[in-house]
């Protein structure tokens, strides 16, 4: 790397190198010295940007987590009882999610499969808690749109659904042989089932 590279370039280079190593070896097996060697930098210089491996690891995963949160926020105002839900909103939303999985495949693979040995945080618990909060916001918004509906579920119900979504994503990320079309189809059918059940799958419109 050129010596006159600005700090942003150096940081981006380190994140790229670390992401590749974490993706191939997992958090536990990767050392800061290995990252320094691969990045062609001194170990001391790396610590100027990332004081610990844990901080570097969190920085690698941060863009994917931000993107997932942004997609959650898009869901809050949607109304699954709308006539446009199946033919318009759901396919577009799930297509965006499929693109997210493709764009951040390595980060998601690290989060779901390469996190062993990472003590400062539990990303499975964080994933479930974040989705739980998004689900509660969606529920509250839905009830505001439909004051005639009385719908209350226990927190355990939401937590189980979020845990199922985590497992579905983990298996999806691990399914390296899937084409983009197969991945998008799976996501859309899973989301349809999660929101409307088997009855909706039996009457799914052509081309979903």
Q: What can you see in these coordinates?
A:
This protein has 208 residues and is an all-alpha fold. Helix 1 packs across helix 4, helix 4 packs across helix 6 and helix 6 packs across helix 8. The longest helix is centred in the first third of the chain and has 24 residues.
Tally of alpha and pi helices: 9
Q: Which class of secondary structure composition applies to the elements?
A: mainly alpha
Sketch the major β-sheet: none
Helix content: over 70%
**Overall morphology:** elongated
Structural topology:
Layout: H1 7-25, H2 32-39, H3 43-49, H4 53-76, H5 85-103, H6 105-113, H7 123-145, H8 155-174, H9 180-202
Helix pairs in contact: 1-2, 1-4, 1-6, 4-5, 4-6, 4-7, 5-9, 6-8, 7-8
What key phrases describe this protein's structure?
mainly alpha, 208 residues, 73% helix
Condensed summary:
By secondary structure, the chain is an all-alpha fold.
């Amino acid at each position: 790397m050129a010596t006159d590279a600005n700090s942003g370039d150096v940081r981006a280079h380190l994140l790229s190198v670390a992401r590749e190593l974490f993706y191939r070896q997992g958090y536990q097996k990767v050392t800061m010295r290995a990252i320094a060697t691969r990045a062609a930098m001194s170990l001391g210089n790396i610590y100027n940007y990332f004081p610990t491996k844990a901080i570097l690891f969190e920085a690698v995963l941060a863009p994917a987590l931000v993107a997932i949160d942004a997609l959650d926020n898009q869901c809050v105002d949607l109304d699954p009882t709308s006539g446009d839900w199946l033919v318009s909103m759901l396919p577009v939303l799930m297509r965006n999610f499929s693109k997210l999985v493709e764009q951040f495949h390595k980060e998601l693979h690290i989060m779901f499969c390469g996190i062993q040995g990472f003590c400062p945080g539990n990303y499975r618990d964080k994933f479930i808690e974040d989705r739980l909060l998004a689900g509660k916001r969606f529920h509250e918004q839905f009830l505001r749109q439909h004051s005639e509906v009385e719908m209350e579920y226990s927190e355990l119900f939401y937590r189980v659904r979020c845990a199922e979504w985590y497992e579905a994503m983990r298996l999806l990320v691990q399914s390296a042989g899937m084409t983009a079309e197969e991945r998008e189809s799976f996501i859309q059918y899973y989301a349809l089932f999660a929101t409307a059940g088997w009855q909706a799958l039996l009457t799914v419109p052509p081309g979903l």
